[in-house]
TrEMBL record:
Belongs to the vitamin-B12 independent methionine synthase family. Zn(2+) binds at H602, C604, E626, C685. Residues 7-296 form the Cobalamin-independent methionine synthase MetE N-terminal domain. The active site is at H653 (proton donor). The keyword S-adenosyl-L-methionine does not apply. L-methionine binds at I392, G393, S394, E445, D560. Gene3D superfamilies: 3.20.20.210. 5-methyltetrahydropteroyltri-L-glutamate binds at K22, N115, R476, C477, W522. It comes from Nonomuraea phyllanthi. This is 5-methyltetrahydropteroyltriglutamate--homocysteine S-methyltransferase. Its cofactor is Zn(2+).
């Protein structure tokens, strides 16, 4: 077996340095260009990536890390797990990813604790697996034609089946993997990478047995490339001895999140992830070299802690960043250069100094009384009807607003003219809500490009990038802000918009803020302080904003925490501690308000049922939560909730307008588990991705349904 290369990366961004793939996909989807053009752009991105990695001096080049949509979906196709209903579609792959006229797409959810979303494979007892190795083989050949030998990367069998909830199909799937390995061997491929990030979570004895069985079987094949099993996003724990006992030749460890294992891995190659694929900071060479020196294995290869999919392409595309900050940054290209430099350096064997721990932040005083006292004060002050109707904050973002923001950035529109346009939009949003008959209004968030970036642009300690795009799902990318220093709020951020909106109407208008956990979760965060301390700093800035909104006469303030669950540690043992400080941060942000001020929070993305107790602990007077999208699956778990709650009655992810009868049915189901005086009526989430036409029709039905129920009370 040829030795494993001395330097590699587990994967690379694929959207293109200028989001070329995004544009190509979208023009293919809307019919502007054909399949050939899309394939040409894909090939160009792959070629540029291989050439660049080789130029930077990287030895082990991966292939099959490119994807037209998602690597888990690619694996489903590789294994023939295409549900029958998609097979007749014009393009079954994109039909599964995005749906068609008559066909809903497959479910999509977050990839472990990242902000990347994968397509959940649908595997039933009738799924017939059949290998279709066209894509990985084509990429190996394509790279070879360019002069590069590559290591194909495929999601491993255990992770694939765990994500699909179908580990009982392991035997069947292993047949396909065995066949794939023999095809790759015949192709002259030296190594294959099987990604098994699921192994860093809590795994049952049965699941660990599956790991042993899977890799014992694949390892025993005579006719195969070297097997490299990559773990990432944490420590392998119990799964490491399980894997080490199998014949796999190389094991990938995330040494940024996990520690150097005590286990002696003699006989194996360890692919040591010492350069983080999850942050944007330069690697400390001392720490990395010490970790490399501490690994006990036959060979140690320098690598990234996970795929570089989760960071932008290059700091070189950010000439406008402040030079002091730029010098601290490393995106994908710079991280590859670090891997190469580390691979060429002699190892250290001293252990590095532990990072210093910051003093805990001072306690912010709780001003708020118990819920019952607050609820009474708010009822008197606000005088809302039963089943109050509200929305989550954003209204449709129009093309002209986006164009106006671009015009301000390029200097063709003055800030004043832009602000007039924002005000005009706020007025439109207020009038729509009044006409429809909503009870608690919003200003519509027209001034926000994004609910995190907007705050990052107005807080000290954050920088925003120009080209720092990171894939979120399919063609969608976000540009996470970079939280690099101490956070401060030099001036009020939202007060002028909230008070302007309130000046237009007698109905209460909610002030809208993004919560500290979400701001941090959707940013790249400094790593020299514990995460908790950084979140507390952001909480203090939000607390200042809450105080100023209240002083300006805003009587309802919503602090959104849609990412509360996202930072939940993968291992159960660490979850309670996280939830405790996350909840404390939220209360720090909101507990400066008086009893009379009604605090709302909002959460979305499925799986909130896992953290209902923590959500209740936020102590918000009203919580609006996604529910309609998941068929009200959350309702049975919310009966224990002790404050105001609005399980969504309108799935805003779909252009479909729910009928009044559907909304009424959802409300009745809510009223079956919660007392009427605590029930709120609202959509699942903000309306910014919808059109006014859809939103007005849907909200009109929400109002009709609510009025029917009110008449029954
Ligand atoms: C992803 S949660 C979004 C909340 C925000 N207030 C909005 O309405 O868009
Ligand atoms: Zn939401």
């Amino acid at each position: 077996m040829s030795p494993f290369p001395t330097s590699t990366v587990l994967g690379y961004p694929r959207i293109g340095p200028r989001r070329e793939l995004k544009r190509a996909l979208e023009s293919y989807w809307n019919g502007t260009s054909g399949r050939d053009e899309l394939d040409r752009v894909g090939a160009e991105i792959r070629e540029r990536t291989w050439r660049r990695l080789a130029e930077l001096g990287l030895e082990g080049l991966p292939s099959n890390t490119f994807s037209m949509y998602d690597q888990v979906l690619d694996t489903a196709v590789l294994l023939g797990a295409v549900p029958a209903r998609y097979r007749a579609a014009d393009d079954p792959y994109f039909a599964m990813a995005r749906g068609t006229e008559g066909l809903a797409p497959l479910r999509m959810t977050k990839w472990f604790d990242t902000n990347y979303h994968y397509i959940v494979p649908e595997i039933g007892p009738d799924t017939v697996f059949a290998l279709d190795a066209a894509k990985p083989l084509a990429e190996v050949r394509e790279a070879r034609a360019l002069g590069f030998e590559t290591r194909p990367v495929v999601v491993g069998p255990v992770t694939f089946l765990l994500l699909a909830g179908a580990l009982d199909r392991l035997d069947d799937v292993l047949g396909c993997y065995a066949e794939l390995l023999s095809l790759l061997a015949a192709e002259g491929v030296a190594w294959v990478q099987l990604d098994e990030p699921a192994l860093v979570g809590d795994r049952s004895a049965e699941e660990l047995a599956a790991v042993r069985a899977a890799y014992a079987r694949l390892g025993s094949l005579a006719d195969r490339p070297g097997l490299f099993v990559a773990s990432y996003f944490g420590d392998l724990g119990e799964a490491l001895p399980a894997l080490a006992a199998t014949p796999v030749e190389a094991i990938g460890l995330d040494l940024v999140r996990g520690g150097v294992p005590a286990l002696d891995l003699s006989g194996k190659t360890v692919v040591a992830g010492v350069v983080s694929g999850r942050d944007v900071w330069r690697t400390s060479p001392e720490r990395a070299l010490a970790a490399l020196g501490a690994v006990r294995a036959s060979e140690v290869t320098v690598s990234t802690s996970c795929s570089l999919l989760h960071v932008p392409y290059s700091v070189a595309a950010e000439p406008e960043l402040e030079p002091g900050l730029r010098a601290r940054l490393a995106f994908a290209e710079e991280k590859v250069a670090e891997v190469v430099a580390l691979a060429r350096s002699p190892r250290l064997d001293a252990s590095p100094a532990e990072p210093s721990v910051a003093l805990p932040a001072p306690v912010a005083p709780e001003r708020r009384g118990p819920y019952a006292v607050r609820a009474a004060a708010q009822a008197e002050h606000l005088g809302l009807p039963p089943l109050p109707i509200t929305t989550i904050g954003s209204f449709p973002q129009t093309g002209s607003l986006r164009a106006a923001r671009a015009a301000v950035a390029s200097g063709t529109l003055s800030q004043d003219d832009y602000e007039r346009q924002v005000e005009a939009e706020i007025e439109r949003v207020i009038r729509v809500q009044e006409r429809l008959g909503l009870d608690v209004l919003v200003h519509g968030e027209p001034e926000r490009n994004d609910m995190v970036q907007y705050f990052a642009e107005h807080l000290d300690g954050f920088a925003v990038t120009r080209n720092g795009w990171v894939q979120s799902y399919g063609s969608r990318c976000t540009r996470p802000p970079i939280l690099h220093g101490d956070v401060g709020r030099p001036a009020p951020i939202t007060v002028r918009w909230a008070t302007y909106a309130q000046s237009l109407t007698d109905k209460p208008v909610k002030g809208m803020l993004t919560g500290p956990v979400t701001i941090v979760a959707w940013s790249f965060v400094r790593d020299d302080l514990p995460l908790r301390d950084v979140v507390f700093q952001v909480a203090d800035a939000v607390r200042d904003e809450v105080r100023d909104l209240e002083a300006a006469g805003v009587s309802i303030i919503q602090v959104d925490e849609p990412a509360l669950r996202e930072l939940l540690p993968l291992r159960r043992a660490a979850q309670a501690d996280y939830l405790e400080w996350a909840v404390a941060a939220y209360r720090r942000a909101t507990s400066g308000a008086s009893d009379r001020t009604q605090i709302h929070t909002h959460l979305c993305y499925s799986d909130a049922d896992q953290i209902v107790t923590a959500i209740d602990g936020l102590d918000a007077d009203v919580t609006t939560i996604e529910s309609a999208r998941s068929g009200a699956r959350i309702l049975p778990t919310v009966g224990s909730f002790t404050r105001g709650l609005g399980p969504g009655v309108y799935d805003i992810h779909s252009p479909r307008v729910p009928a009044a009868a559907e909304v009424e049915d959802l409300l009745r189901r809510t009223l079956a588990v919660l007392p009427v005086e605590r029930v709120w009526v609202n959509p699942d989430c903000g309306l910014k991705t919808r059109t006014y036409e859809e939103v007005e029709a849907a909200l009109a039905n929400v109002v009709t349904a609510t009025r029917t129920l009110r008449a029954d009370l």
